[in-house]
Amino acid sequence: MSQLSDFELDIQTKLLRATFLKNMAVFQQHMPEVFNFYQNYAPSRVKLTFDHNGDINMISAGALVYPEKAKENSYKQAEAFYNDPKLFSYQLRRDEKTDFEHANVLERIYQRREQDVKTSSFNLLKHEKQIDLLTMIGVGLGFHIERLFQLVNIRFFYLFEPDPDCFYCAMHCIDFGPLVDHCYRQNGAFTIRLGGNANQYVNGLNEMLTQHGFFNVARFYNYRHYHSEMTDDTFKTIYELAYRLSSGWGFFEDEIISIIHTIENAKQRFPYILDKSLFVNQLKDKPVFIIGNGPSLDDTIDFVKNNADNAIIFSCGTALKPILDAGIMPDFHIEMERTAALYDWVDSVGHKDKLKEINIIALNTVYTKILKLFKKAYLLAKPKDGGMDFLYAYIDAGKYPPVKACNPTVTNAATAAAVYLGFKTMYLFGVDYGYIDEEHHHSKSSIYYQKGSIGAKDKMQGDMRVEGNFVDEVFTTQHFDNSRASLEILLESNPQVTCYNCSNGAKIQLTKPLKYQDISPLDKIEAKDKTLSMLLAHAFSFADLKHLNLDSLFKSKLEVLKKTINVLVDMTQVELNSRQQLAQIFTEQYKLIRNFKRNKDTLIIYRFLSGTLNYFQSNIMSNAYMYQDKTQQIAFMHDALTIFNQHLLWLYNELVESYQNPSKH
Questions:
Q1: What Cα–Cα distance (Å) separates residue 565 from each residue in 210, 257, 447, 592, 657?
Q2: Is the per-residue pLDDT at 459 higher than 60?
Q3: Contact 155/132 with Cβ under 8 angstroms?
Q4: Exposure letters 645-659 (e unless 16+ CB within 10 A, then b)
């Protein structure tokens, strides 16, 4: 054991203080929010100390955080991670059959890699000495960070420390300046998130990827320094939610469909929803029934029928057939899928005479021919959509607001429509976002159980289990889980809305579980049809679109798009010598496209290219990681880039030939 003398203690204390001040200067320059947070900071629970060996340590609740030798043991932990790293590996979900060239070309890149390498099990860190993205949970005294930067080349570093006291201590122990500079020299970033919970950690990571490129998710390493309830929960959450960071980006062909349908729907003069401040909903305090096609609809459909006059009924997608078969006439039908193939699903519902008595509310992307099956069509502006980005260059987004949280499923479009129309109380029926029995995945009365029908499906495989609304847990899919999360975002953003979950499916945060038998008696809504007609007349408008020549305006965007694609292709016309060089090229491509997001006149260029860029960059990078042989790897990267560049040029020609013609998909 060794104790520090007073002189040694004084020297060590001054050195610690000097390190802290150096770090404060670094953060003042690069991360002013961190600098401001710690400018007058005083730790309350975790503090620096010197232990019985005279080594720097931390003390919390009267006990040492590190049993001994904090620096030495932190170095050993970093070295153990280097020898056996924990990482998330991106893998593209492959469709067996698709009409989209997007998926077919991604499959070609996958098959090109399989010609050389079918499996990969080597330690990439030791092979490359490179980490494109490292996320870290827990800073401790920071010595493990210092050691990792010595062992490998790190481009993007993202640190989450739930306890600000700990980071305050670390600021006295290691010099962050060289680490920050290293990331910036690599055209990367050094990000620190202090405090918060597991979800905020994931959201922060998403923000970083949004800024710097989602291809970095192809291999991201996750390091947990210490165990606590918060860090353990965060470590678990990142692996459960990683798929949300690596999907749902959209793609060029999808936006072609959006442009075609948006322009055609404008030619039909279908009106768009207005901002809530511009109309009055006289039925805002009346209950809304959101009817999804989940399996629990079978148990509640009689209740819905018995209260059809006492609530405003929103029918969602394939729920239309079961409720029409049951003799229920919805007040609104909702659709949100953009492909023309949806027409066959709606057409298979039958009841064509009844459809002509029902108003449809749909996203701007929905196929015009579907909308014309109904009485009248009313449109919701989909956010982050090529068609709406095009229109917003000429109409006011404040007057015609993008309807947030309207996807990925039709129940999201319905709940968002209800909220944006000003309704304050919603009841969810058949909005299950999961199922107890994999063979009972939708309402038994729906098209999914009609033998030989377009949607026949005996069994639906769940991706995971989640907490249930009325039962312990239910099966769900990533798609349903994303839908549930989207509804939670909608409710969090609109605290004035009360939402009762009467569905026997997944638990939905911010809803109130309520079995239909426990719903208080509802009063009849007087003059419901007349009042709803007035609401539609005042809440939707086409006034600012009627004088626009959209075909002519869109032609002006094509020249900019063509030039941008040529620049993207030119960026790859170099002699590649490493995967790291490819990562730099992808970063520059991503920055180029992201710049188009800043101006409403060029936002549509960003929308056309960003999703496709994310998918192809991530797919190419993920496959490139699997090579140990550098010669083979470089040959693969050249071939993959050639395939991608050919696809970009094909997409441009497809858009030019298609945007004034009926949708192919």
A1: 20, 19, 42, 11, 17
A2: no
A3: yes
A4: bebbeebbebbeebb
Cβ atoms of 353 and 372 closer than 8 Å: no
Q: H helices within 119-251, ranges in order?
A: 124-128, 143-151, 164-170, 176-185, 198-212, 229-245
Given 3-state DSSP classes, what are the helix, strand and coil percentages for the chain, each rounded to the nearest 5?
50, 15, 35
- pLDDT surpassing 70 at residue 487: yes
pLDDT digits (tens, 9 = 90+) for 239-270: 666 666 667 788 999 999 999 999 999 999 99
Q: Mind listing the pLDDT tens digit for each residue in 34-81?
A: 999 999 999 999 999 998 888 999 999 889 999 999 999 999 999 999
Question: What is the crossing angle of helices 579-595 and 603-624, to 10°?
Answer: 170
Residue 625 near residue 217 (C-beta atoms within 8 A): no
Mean pLDDT computed over 279-286: 98
Distance CA 512, CA 212 (A): 39
CB of 38 within 8 A of CB of 46?
A: no
Can you read off the two tokens belonging to residue 435?
A: 């199922």
Half-sphere exposure of 334 (CA within 13 A, CB side): 25
Residue type at 204? G
Q: State the sign of the Cα–Cα–Cα–Cα dihedral 556, 561, 564, 569.
A: negative
Q: Report the b/e string of 427-438 with b at 16+ CB within 10 A.
A: bbbbbbbbbbee
Torsions phi, psi for 251 (to 5 deg): -160, 165
Q: Phi and psi at residue 379, in whole multiples of 5°?
A: -110, 145
Question: Between 118 and 543, where is the model more confident?
Answer: 543
Note the pLDDT tens digit of each residue in 164-208.
999 999 999 999 999 999 999 998 999 999 988 877 788 888 888
Report the half-sphere exposure of 39 (CA within 13 A, side-chain side).
9
459 secondary structure, DSSP code: -
Pairing verdict, β 512-513 and 498-501: parallel
**Which residues lie below 8 Å from residue 573, measured CB to CB, with a gap of 6+?**
none
Average per-residue pLDDT in the chain? 90
Q: How confident is the model at residue 441 (pLDDT cuts 50, 70, 90)?
A: very low
Report whether 4 contacts 50 (CB < 8 A): yes
Of the two residues 147 and 250, the one the predictor is more confident about is: 147
Strands (E), 419-520: 425-429, 464-467, 473-476, 498-501, 512-513
What one-character DSSP code corresponds to residue 219? Answer: E
Q: For residue range 499-535, what is the model confidence (pLDDT) as tens digits?
A: 999 999 999 999 999 999 999 999 999 999 999 999 9
CA distance 125 to 395: 51
Six token digits for residue 657:
């030939």
* 309 vs 328: CA distance, rounded Å: 10
Single-letter code of the amino acid located at 323: I
Beta bridge partners of 50: 56
By the 10 Å C-beta count (0-12 exposed, 13-18 middle, 19+ buried), 133 is classed as buried
Residues paired with 334 in a beta bridge: 316, 361
Residue by residue, DSSP assigns 559-622 as HHHHHHHHHHHHHT-S----HHHHHHHHHHHHHHHHHGGGSTTTHHHHHHHHHHHHHHHHHHHH
Mean pLDDT of 99-106: 91
pLDDT digits over 358-377, tens only?
999 999 999 999 999 999 99
Q: What angle do CA 102, 335, 488 make, to 5 degrees?
A: 90
- Asked whether the beta carbons of 294 and 428 are under 8 A apart, the reply is no
> What is the amino acid identity at position 148?
L
Q: How far, rounded to the nearest angstrom, does the alpha carbon of residue 569 sit from its chain's CA centroid? A: 27
- Bigger pLDDT: 332 vs 245: 332
Q: Is residue 622 a contact partner of residue 92, using CB atoms and an 8 Å limit?
A: yes
Residue 445 has what pLDDT?
Answer: 54
Give SS3 for 94.
Answer: coil
